[in-house]
Structures are given as C-alpha cells and as structure tokens.
Write a structure and sequence with these properties.
Length: about 400
Amino acid sequence: MKPDLFQSPDYYDLDALLSDEHKLVREAARGWVKREVSPIIEDYAQKAEFPIQIIHGLAEIGAFGPYIPEEYGGAGLDYISYGLIMQEIERGDSGVRSTASVQSSLVMYPIWKYGNEEQRMKYLPKLASGEFMGCFGLTEPNYGSDPGSMITNFKDKGDHYLLNGAKMWISNAPFADIAIVWAKNEEGRIHGLIIERGMQGFSTPETHHKWSLRASATGELIFDNVKVPKGNLLPNKSGLGAPLGCLDSARYGIAWGAIGAAMDCYDTALRYAKERIQFDKPIAGTQLQQKKLAEMITEITKAQLLTWRLGVLKNEGKATTAQISMAKRNNVDMAIHIAREARQILGAMGISGDYSIMRHMMNLESVITYEGTHDIHLLITGMDITGISAFK
Ligand code: TGC
Ligand code: FAD
C-alpha cells in the first residue's frame, strides 16, 4: 500500500468547536492509525485476517470503553471524544473500528449499565486493557432486523441456566474471550448472559468468504446445552430494550466512524486528481471530476455538523434513538456514495490494493447493513415522525 499521506478535511473549521482534550484524543488516535494500521491493513484484508497484534494499541489510545468511568478501567471521556476515536480508527479500516465498537458499546456498555458491581469489577478493567476481548450475539440465522423473534433460549435448572440456540454474523466471535448473548427465558423475556470461552457446549466457528470487512473476524455462536452459572445473567435490565440500548451507543459511534472512511476516500481522490494528467492537464481541472470532489466535501461537511451536534446532545443525555438512527443512516450512505465516486476518480487504480478506496467501499457494504440496515433506520425515522410503526 502507498504511504499514508492523509490530511483531514475541515471545510467549516469545526476544530473551533472542539476542546483541547478532544483534539489531543483525536491526534493520539490519528497518529496511531498512521503508524500501526495503515502500513499493514491492506495485507490483512487481502488475506482475510484480523491483525490481532493491534489490540494492545487500541487499548492504549482509549478505544476500549472511552466513556466508561475510570474506576472500571475506562478512559472517562465524553461522547465527542468517543466519536472522534471511532472516526480516526475507521479512517484506517471499518473492520478495526468494528472491533473497538463491539468491545466498547456492545460488551462493556451492557456490563456497565445492566450488570452488577461484581460483574463490572470482574470484566470491565480486563476489557478496557484488551486482556479480555468480547463479542455481542443478537442476530440469529432466521432473525436479523427482527431480533424480538429470536429463538435462542435458556431454562432455569435450579443452580444454573441451560442455554440453547445459535447466533450468526458475530463480529470478534472467533477470538472473543466472552460473549454477551441475548436469549429468552421460559416466559419469553429477553435477558443478557455473559458466556465465557471454554464453557462446555459453546463454540464459535469462523465465517469465511466475505468480500467485506475482511480484516475483521466474524463468526457464529453455537450453544448446545451450555451450563451457565446464575451469576452470569445481567440483572439490571431485560426485554428487547436492553440490547437495543447498546445499539444506540454503537450506532452513534458508527455515525462518526463512517465520516472517517469518507474523509480518507475524499482525501485520496483529491490528491490523485491533482496529480493524474490526462489530455495534458490534471483531471482535477475537469468539470466532471470537480463536481464529484465538490459534492464529496459538501456531504462530508454536512455529516460532520450533524454528528458534532449529535455528540453535544449525547453529552447532555438528550440524544434520542431516532436522532442516532438518522445520523447512522445518513453518514454511512454518504460514505458509501463517496467511496464509489472516489473509486471512479482513480480509474483502474481505484480497484488496486495500493489505495484504500476499494477496501473502504467493500467494508461499507457491511456497515450499511449491520447495526440496523439502511431501510430499518429509515423506518425508525418514519415511526418517530408519524407515530405509526411500519415494521410489522
Ligand atoms: P419495538 O416494539 O419497537 O421495541 C421493543 C422494546 O424496545 C424499546 N426500544 C428501545 N429501547 C432502548 N433503546 C432503543 N434504541 C430502543 N428501541 C426500542 C421499545 O420502547 C420497546 O420497549 P417496551 O418496554 O415497550 O417493550 O421493537 P420491534 O420488535 O418492533 O423492533 C424495532 C426495530 C426494528 C427498530 C429493532 O428491533 C431494530 O433496531 N432492528 C434492527 C436490528 C439490529 O440493529 N441489529 C443489530 C445487531 S448487532 C450488530 O449488528 C453489531 S455489528 C457490530 C460491528 O461490527 O460494529
Ligand atoms: P434481514 O433482516 O433479513 O433483512 C434483509 C432485507 O430486508 C434488508 O434490506 C432489510 O432492510 C429488509 N427488511 C427487513 N425488515 C423489513 C421491514 N420491516 N420493512 C422493509 N424492509 C425490511 N449481529 C450481531 O448480533 N452481532 C454482531 O457482532 C454482528 N456483526 C456483523 C458483522 C457483519 C460483517 C455483518 C454483515 C453483520 C453483522 N451482524 C451482527 C448482523 C447484522 O446486524 C444483521 O445482518 C442486520 O441486522 C440485518 O439482518 P439480516 O442480515 O438478517 O437481514
């Protein structure tokens, strides 16, 4: 891959809205991505392998539980810092950001919010340092957009629970030490359980042949009469609202992350267009390529403003599920569109692994599907403004 020459676009001087701490956190993440991710990520994506050695660095830049209080090993940062870290990591690769999102918002968040003090002290510091890695099992082979219909279930056997069922498309599953698994009890109520690698009857086969998120490990979670200690149930929230609450936090991070992928595609295409000569002049001097580049920076700027405002609302505890959905949907769509346009600006070079664009473009096909599809987020907005659910 070519050297990482990334220069972050900031057309409306949004830096003026950030605190010194925000900028420090962002610079630490940006520098780390340039040093540790950019030089290796294309090779790992080509061989469809997660670069497991970066876990320590992710922990060091505070990517695991940025907003989790320091008493539990988190970085104790605000939600704008969390967003900026996700943006910088996804500038490198959406799959690496996935690993950080899952660890922070889908594993540490439910233990912090729905767990008891013993569970928090046992797991959170090790998850923050990367000593433990986690995954989140909601999606099932027959239930993706409709997780409330899940069939994975557990029965009360007196001194333990007995868990049966299967989850699929689970990020981090192949190497995770623990899994937060959503399953129904005998009354059909959804609960979260902490499942540990090594429990008898629990396996995590890897999913192969992906054309997207190739540098992220994806797998299944299979539960065949797994005996789960009663102390592994998250006691403080149940019902579908519990996993959906975690998704709010992860979707918020994705809204920021997608801007990172878009910025990288725009920056690469702008530089290439200024250097590439056809018909005796840089292609950046043609109206058609300027239209693409001008529209890209306009959309990136709009997404940056939307997300910054969402971060302020989140810090104030006011961001709603529907507002988060709008930002996730808008920004991922914006990023995938920019990746496709940027790829065309590079002509044949756009399909080469020497540049990051095609990898971003393929990664974003997963990002537009997971954590609620593009359609589902539109329906969440539709329900919010009309008061009528169009899901069922
Ligand atoms: P519905 O009847 O609307 O709601 C059921 C209950 O949940 C409450 N609720 C929420 N609570 C907290 N936060 C939210 N965001 C909530 N949204 C809804 C709701 O108030 C209700 O509570 P109660 O007390 O009345 O029971 O549920 P529904 O069955 O109609 O479904 C709604 C729908 C479609 C919006 C929802 O199920 C949905 O979001 N589907 C998409 C599924 C999804 O996003 N899956 C993601 C899996 S994880 C993943 O993809 C990780 S990728 C990670 C990576 O690699 O980065
Ligand atoms: P479906 O729900 O079958 O949807 C298929 C199509 O139908 C979509 O276009 C959808 O928008 C549309 N559709 C569905 N319902 C409606 C409706 N009511 N009205 C109109 N259109 C509708 N899940 C986890 O639990 N944990 C993870 O860590 C995780 N990681 C993932 C990693 C990757 C790489 C990928 C690709 C997925 C991951 N997922 C994970 C799963 C992801 O959340 C689901 O794929 C997603 O929620 C969509 O579910 P589905 O694929 O079953 O699609």
